[in-house]
Amino acid sequence: MASPASFAHLVIFARRPVLGVGKRRLAAAVGDVEAVRFQRLAIDRLLRRLAGDRRWTTTVATSPDRPTDWLRGRAAAMPQGRGDLGRRLTSAARRFQTGRLVIIGSDTPAVAPGDVAAAFDALRGHEAVVGPARDGGYWLIGLRRSAHGPLPFDNIRWSSSHTLADTLARLEGRRVARLRTLEDVDDLPSYRRFTARSQRP
Fold it and tell me: What are 2-18's pLDDT values in tens digits?
């Protein structure tokens, strides 16, 4: 008999945490070294919290596609591939033709196992689930892959205050659940808020 995790797939989108590869907007504000330090901390925290959970399988969609040695065997890896974010999300989703699929980014270190579990639970009664971000985007999107309908990643204004609204428009007519609002850390104000929260006792 298949385990529950075989029908629940978590994919974490992450760029390789080295100088000059990811977090360019944050690096412009805090410097390359500090941006990479945050990137590594965020990825490590997510993998430590989520990758070992037996309620789902965990795969990291990496960019660039190779090398993947920085994962140190903590999760399976797959390439994001080429194209804009919508094309890469579509490519990732098509790898999972059945079951429940949840995709998160690696720049929201506040994501906890309970958030991911809530997303998978929501997909039992909904075709999709989103976790809104403070900037108008989203930190999580989940899809029930056995549901009918096209993938909702075309013609989206990515990295803008319209990203969530555009995606919800693409999901019109389908039952969509919402999770709590979290904040992506991708600029100086959000970085300062993250640092302040981390220093609280």
Answer: 556 669 999 999 999 98
Instruction: Give the CATH class of 18-198.
Output: alpha beta
d(CA 178, CA 139): 11
φ/ψ (deg, to 5) at 159: 55, 45
What residue spans define the domains of the chain? Answer: 18-198
Distance separating alpha carbons of residues 189 and 12, to the nearest angstrom = 24
Q: What is the pTM of this model?
A: 0.93
**d(Cα 150, Cα 70) in Å, to the nearest integer?**
34
CA distances from 148 to 56, 88, 96, 143, 173 (A): 22, 20, 14, 10, 11
Q: Output the CA–CA distances (angstroms, integers) from residue 136 to 40, 74, 190, in the order listed.
A: 25, 31, 14
